[in-house]
Amino acid sequence: MALEWTSILSFLIDGLMLGFVFGVAAMGLTLIWGVMDVINLAHGPLIALAMFGVYLLMAALGLGNPYPALLVITLLALPVGMGIYYVAVHRVINAPHLSSLLATYSVNMMLMGVMNAVFGGAPRNIDFSLGSVTLFGDIVIPVARLVAALAAVLIAGALYFFLYRTRLGRYIRAVTDNRDAAELVGVPSTTILALSFGLGVLLAAFAGGLIATIFPFTIFDGGRYELKSFVIGVLGGLGNPIGSLFGGLVLGVIEGLVPMFLETSWTPVIEFALFVLILLVRPTGLFGGKS
Amino acid sequence: MSRQKPSLPPALRPADFRPALPGRHWANWALPLALVLALGLFPLLTGKDVHRETMFTLLRAVVMAVSLNIILGYTGYVSFGHVVFFGLGGYVGFYLVAVQGRTLWEALLAGGLAAGLLAWLIGIGILRLRGAYFALVTIGVNEAVKAFIQNFDPFGGPLGLTMNFSVYQAYGGPRTMLQMTYYILVVLAALAVLLSYAVRTSKFGLGLLAIREDEDAAEVMGVVTPMAKTWAFVLSAILPGVVGALFFFRNGSIEPHEAFPLHLSIEAIVMVMLGGQGTVWGPVLGAAGYQAMRAFLLTNRYLKNIQLTVSGALLLLIVLFIPAGLIGWLRRRFPASRRVLL
């Protein structure tokens, strides 16, 4: 038999680990969509910005591994996201979709312009190694990927805890369900909207930083991960952040298994065809979204 | 036709809510047409090739923006995938000329037909989706078609196709070909403006405007919305398909990243917004203004590196403060201009 079980298993494990990381990026996108019906078209450049942030901070501090820098960048992303909300999104929050799409896209253009002028298009690489572990004799897993997948699961758990076990989280869910009613009972909806946008950007930055520990990157790669986030967000149900994690796993399995049967270049065809199909047949996603 | 003034006092009358009138007036098509022709014939006066090439880019933008306006401005459906029609028309036309040895005319026709057919096929499905879901799926369609063509061997896969330059001999050599294709584009841009006016002032167009304002109400009032939306989508797709075939014939080569750049779709949206969505003048002025601004930024010593940032900041200011665009703002500010400024 041409397909060895172990090679299928190693492709699968690899796909699943990446799927968790991509899932976190999509969680950022879908959290914002769920709370305020805004598709954040600045998602990709923000991911790229976090990649460069981790890269530069690690170099500036002379660290041996990127994780402390990742933590700092992730925390910085929250006020950055809230700032973007107040400047670009707040005025168009009740306008037709075109306005908020264009407002976030204008942020995308501004970030891309600045990054292009400052960093240029050359690829970067975070230079560190954690070695690899071997499972079942011949499945080799790089430790950096394992750490990234675990971190992704951890932050997803933290988000769940925050949304369902804290007062602010309950406010966010209230604003998601019905902004007017939430306001009537005293929820400061503008602050909550800004906080949600900030959280979405925080998740994007965290995922971007994790991806930067795995793959080399350029400023243009953000666009690729943004498109992946769209696909995952739709798979898991737009507006359902936890569904995104599962959407990420589905995507990870597809990315892991398709190269075994077809050329790798067919993967995006299958992904986007699936994306269009799910939007047409079941726009709430496989795991149920916001109606 | 004289219009009765609503009896509400001005303070209670929302400035931009008023019954959409057919707006038939010669100035509404003749003036935008005159502007397009003046822009198109300007290189003839100077006789410089560089002006002609600048104007080629500008008129291509005019066609993209004016055609996008039919689905975006009139019908109210935000398409982020308008460039898919340009790219597909380009590929079909290029394949016919470069591989099958057909003429340019057949290529232009086939490019338009292919784009229209794609719009019809996907339109039936995706125009059921509203709001942001439609916008998302148009991004998906563009990426899916691009990814498919990257794997499609007759179209050259990821490397694309190139034209044998001897093909141009049939059109009087490369120099004459460049002239001729330019004038074809001038004609196409003029056609786009006339089409835009015809749709805007027709009963069909009125149906589209009704869909934009409230789709359910439009349906109740007797607009067959699935049909109207699909035809609006097809009409908006045909000219970009023809222009795609023309552009890549002239270009001499085609490859997937050149044929389906997402940013071209978004630039077209920006142009429509700048000038004023849902108007005949708007996309024309928006396209011309955007291209002029881009040219200025790209040639400015200090701004050229952050050209994208300046464009983005400008877009944000427009979206936040003048969402109706230049024409929409003028129409609101000077009500008397409404008859002749559509």
Kindly list the characteristics that best describe this protein.
heterodimer, A: 291 residues, mainly alpha, ABC transporter involved in vitamin B12 uptake, BtuC, two-stranded antiparallel ribbon, 11 helices, 74% helix, globular, B: 342 residues
Q: List the strand order in the largest sheet of chain A.
A: 1-2
Query: Which percent band covers the strand fraction of chain A?
Result: under 5%
Question: Structural class, from secondary structure content of chain A?
Answer: mainly alpha
Arrangement of strands in the largest sheet of chain B: 1-2
What does this protein look like?
The complex is a heterodimer of chains A (291) and B (342). With 291 residues, chain A is mainly α. Chain A has one domain (8-120, 145-281): ABC transporter involved in vitamin B12 uptake, BtuC (Orthogonal Bundle), CATH 1.10.3470. Helices cover 74% and strands 3% of the residues of chain A. Chain A contains eleven helices and two strands. Chain A has a two-stranded antiparallel sheet. In chain A, a hairpin with a 3-residue loop joins β1 (132-135) and β2 (139-142). In chain A, α9 crosses α10 (241-261). In chain A, 52% of the residues are buried. The mean pLDDT of chain A is 89. By secondary structure, chain B is mainly alpha-helical. Chain B has a domain at 47-261. Helices cover 70% and strands 1% of the residues of chain B. Chain B has 14 helices and two strands. Chain B has helices spanning 26-46, 49-74, 83-98, 104-126, 131-150, 173-200, 203-213, 215-220, 225-251, 256-259, 262-275, 281-299, 307-321, 325-333; strands spanning 161-162, 253-254. In chain B, strands 1-2 form a two-stranded antiparallel ribbon. The longest helix of chain B has 28 residues, at 173-200. The two termini of chain B are 16 Å apart.
